[in-house]
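Entry 12.
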Amino acid sequence: MGFLGEDIRKLGFGLMRLPQKEGVIDVEQVKEMVDLFLDAGFTYFDTAWAYAGSEDAIRQALVERYPRERFQLATKNAAWINCKTKEEAYAQFDTSLAQTGAGYFDFYLLHNLGESRTKYFDDFDMWNWIQEKKASGQIRHAGFSFHSTPKELDAILTAHPEMEFVQLQINYADWENPAIQSKGCYEVARAHGKPVIIMEPVKGGMLANPPASVADIFRSAEPERSVASWAVRFAASLPGVITVLSGMSSVEQMKDNLSYMKAFDGLTEAQKETLANAQEELKKIPLIPCTTCNYCAKVCPMDIGISGSFTAMNYLTLYGDMNAAKGQENWLVGGHGHKRANECIRCGKCEEACPQHIKIRDELVKVSGALG
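Predicted 3D structure (tokens):
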């Protein structure tokens, strides 16, 4: 089933994590990946102004080698990155056109809305600007990507019903995670009648190597399939999905994705049960039960990034990935101007405010010990 008048299959090529050789994007390998992707009948490519070198690489690997009508190309505008004026924000579009050589974009996104970032798009009147670009034919479909709460997504879609689609982080691990609220955001988008493009179906690669007890469930059910395939297929099975972006970094990953997505026609009941079992297994892993309500933050005299610290610690517990955990801490704590866990003065006001009755002071000590 197509959406927005486009015939797009359920696997999209995410161009954020392209293969590298000697510290730069390996364009020759990208060309091979592009050829395999198109030969298999897939057509959707997703880049962004903010993905260093990606737009230039896809110009060389795709735009200069194939007729423009053979593919759909999406890119994004991140007005919150170092833009002090609307002219600087608008200039990202011209840069993307020049770097890709695409002539126009099939899908153009206001990138990473949510929290303090949305204000830049409001202040620079980018909602009207993107419609002007669409009217001029330089954009065929206008939408936005989003990382925040269902409540905030509902407010944006209520204010901007003209936006045609939403790009959301959805995967089986985050589906009912109170810190991410994938399911809630998906349901809001569908309630507004907006089709969804899915990003991070493999959670930045972490669901290619989930906890052993989860991986065992998948391998027992389908030993011939990769563990990562379950994550992509879960996302692709959801109603109202335009396509699922996989950030492929090698020819091998491309071949693996194509092996099960070329003939994908939904999940069987047995496969749905396997995924449900995997989700239940994930719930058994002892995580900090933080729902990111941030009531604690409202009373903390030190402005500790409590919920962000807990999200980072849960990454470490689930995936054993210290780099990913520290990346979350840097983004959610330091990136938002909060103090780190080791600056807690143990006053206890946070625990009085916490509706989940978390022993926040003790958990912050653990975070400090684990993440430094």
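Annotation: The radius of gyration is 21 Å. Residues 269-284 form the longest helix (16 residues).
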